[in-house]
Known about the structure:
The protein is an all-alpha fold. Helix content is 77%, strand content 0%.
Amino acid sequence: MxxxxxxxQQALKSMVLTYIDAQKINIEAxxxxxxxxxxxxxxxxANKRLPxxxxxxxxxxxxxxxxxxxxxxxxxxxxxxxxxxxxNFGDIWDQCLxxxxxxxAAQVTIxxxxxxxxxIKTNFDTLSGFTHQPAK
Length: 136
């Protein structure tokens, strides 16, 4: 597995784990709009923006032509399936990255993936800050 593919896979794993950790935080008592918005943003990133972005990347890298996926429904489960494909079919992913990954559209999509990773971390920091606030 190339370093770039490992970096992409690690970012995807981190986003999925961040989503899972965010689901464990109880914000029912929060009246803070920033906290509620952060929770909503995390769900949207994990279940909508990330699956569509990774689908777009796979399309640009022609991975979809080489690997058949069971589910195409946009969800965090789809992202988990993609992560597994990177492990199980690393050679195919590497070949596709080497052949198509240097194109500007693929580079922009990869950059967007890492920006999305930063977004989910920022939202999680906001959300997790709520759990560290002292009780009034």
